[in-house]
């Protein structure tokens, strides 16, 4: 369904100093039809940027995006516009996706208008409301009159109105109360089954990743460090091992966020070097490749190369 090949995104920040941040650093990724790839990693590791690259919402510094066999990075703007509606984003903050001055109905109708598919599709939108677990009555309300969970359901309705095939769910429940998180996740999983959708499901919650992901990828400092099925049952990369340990032992891994920031500027060597308990001299000199151990697992670590 969708493939990212050797994707890079370098941000230049600072008006005078031109500091470079390598947010995504050579990612190869593929998501099949009807499949969910759960992408886990800490804040600042490049998850959202990778999602936006696959949706072509941000232009890759290097690399290609292939959607249904078509190379989006080489496509004309007008062609890309048509394909865009098949690829959607469910963002972390539902209120960022809805205009506060518009009713829910107007917000859900807008994508249809933009793509010139419909100006007034009340029946279709009413049906969608039911599908996402809202009432017809919600259509006349404004975003501030809805709870966080209801808002996210409205965003999901807005996403589904264009019948997309591939959706990036960017931490779609992280801003919601724990009590409503499960119902939103279940809704997304039901929709996937009914509509055969492909998801990149971004989360930093390993339990959520385990539930939604057919496969999982762990990202650290812009690179995939481990990828496969049932990763968390038997993590191989030292960083994945730390993630799993911190989940079960509730250990704090907050200090790694600072480390990632420092690491984002480096070129050579393993990006996890500074924190890795199993580092060797080779790790400082050579970037470990992402090695396929068997059909089910890839790991970026010299230990397994
Ligand atoms: N538009 C931007 N301009 C400059 N730097 C950015 C921009 N977007 C993200 N970054 C930087 O890229 C890195 C990865 O960010 P992001 O993809 O948002 O990570 P995550 O979603 O995993 O928290 C961070 O260091 C972040 O500060
Ligand atoms: Mg993010």
UniProtKB/TrEMBL annotation:
Entries under Pfam families matching the protein: ABC_tran, oligo_HPY
Single Gene Ontology BP annotation: peptide transport
Span of domain ABC transporter: 2-246
Similarity remark: Belongs to the ABC transporter superfamily.
Protein name per its UniProtKB record: Oligopeptide/dipeptide ABC transporter, ATPase subunit
Keyword ATP-binding among record annotations: yes
InterPro entries per the UniProt record, alphabetical: AAA+_ATPase (IPR003593), ABC_transp_ATP-bind (IPR050319), ABC_transporter-like_ATP-bd (IPR003439), ABC_transporter-like_CS (IPR017871), Oligopep_ABC_C (IPR013563), P-loop_NTPase (IPR027417)
Source superkingdom: Archaea
A molecular-function term among this protein's GO annotations: ATP binding
Keyword set, alphabetical order: ATP-binding, Nucleotide-binding, Transport
Keyword Nucleotide-binding: yes
